[in-house]
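Continuing the batch. This is chain 6 of the set; chains 1 through 5 are on the previous pages. Same settings as before, nothing changed between runs. Recording input and output for traceability.
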Amino acid sequence: MNLPELLRTSALRLALWQALLFLLTAAVLAGIVGWQVHTFGRDQLRTAVHADTLRLLDDLDEAGAQPLQQQIAARVHALPRTHELLALLDHNGRMLVGNLPPTIDLRGAAAGWHTVDLPRAFDPVDGDDASAELWLQQLPDGRMLVVGRDLTAMIQLDETLSSAFLIASALALALAVAGGLLLGRSYLRRVRTVGRSAQRIMDGDLTARIPARTHGGDEFDLLARQLNAMLDRIQQLMEGMRQVSNDIAHDLRTPLTHLRQRLETAAGADDPEALRAALAQAQHDVDQVLATFAAMLAIARIEARERRAGFEALDFSGLLETLAGDYAPVAEERGQRLVTRIAPGVRVRGDRRLLTQLVANLIENAMTHCPAHTEITLGLSPGEAGGFIATVADRGPGIPAIERAQVFKRFYRLDHSRATPGSGLGLALVQAIAELHGFAAAIEDNDPGTRVLLRGPALPRVAA
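Output for chain 6:
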């Protein structure tokens, strides 16, 4: 993990953008705070200058002009405070007494506030940045009283705030870069883990998964869990395709072999009747193969979710009643009996044609694999949490428990049912339609016989 690679990470760029945003926000905040502090300090300074001016004016009212000049001289001489400025100017603006530097020229200056620059000698520490805030008070006799303070403390405070902001900005930028590099290193490590898993999958190892915490975690764990779920589905589909390919090769080999034999027989037949019989058998084999491929195509389309556009609210109870009415005579002809226990008013959302095919496949499957004098029950009842339970139960030979999960696979057939017509796709089609509708199909023992259960969500009942 080299430095150029880290510098190109999104984490570092994001950290730098966040640092820039922080610096801009801090600059605005520092400007506002600095201005407020500067304004507050200036106001405090001016308040102190006004207080000094009022005290001097009070002395003027009591003792006249001459004592004021003497008092200023005494204060300047006795209390030579560098940061206080006092002066008394004559009518022409020349200083009569005070500690104003000679470089400050106030001739012609109007009464009020004035900001003036101080010479370097006045404050060697502050140098060229030294300045002062002066208040000029016009006296009744035309002379001018000057009271002021230098701004060294305020300038130093402004410089301190500026230095603090620059230092904080530099530290924030350095921390942002360091944090971005660490975060980028962590992100690169996680991305490389995902990349290694992806490479294993591309190399053919479909069992590879991205490491992730089962619960909680960060966005990488959430993404990894979703990708792992997708990989599980892909692996399931790939294994299904592999199984289907093997099953097609195995199950279609027999009818195609028979077809070839019958065509060879037809090609060498001299008797027209034998020729027609061979061709009829060959046509039957072709129809069987086409029916198998049609069932496989239907399953593929259903698994691709192509039929959800036709979903609607429908009366599931009425659909089952209709099917029971259609298949009851067929069961009678076979010496079987179809019994119904259908609760009225059960409604579901789905495709009517597909649900009809689902239930019809279950009924036909029970009729095909059950002997005569067998009772077949078609049931429907409300389930828990507003759902439903549909059942097709029989008293036939049943399905061994070890094979109940296998019969929903394509081309899977029980040993005792291989002599009966069929391709082994009926229950696979049932499973595909059930999954498309969000239903769960399962097989249980009916003691004796088999009971197929179908569970799913139901729509609210319509008030009569």
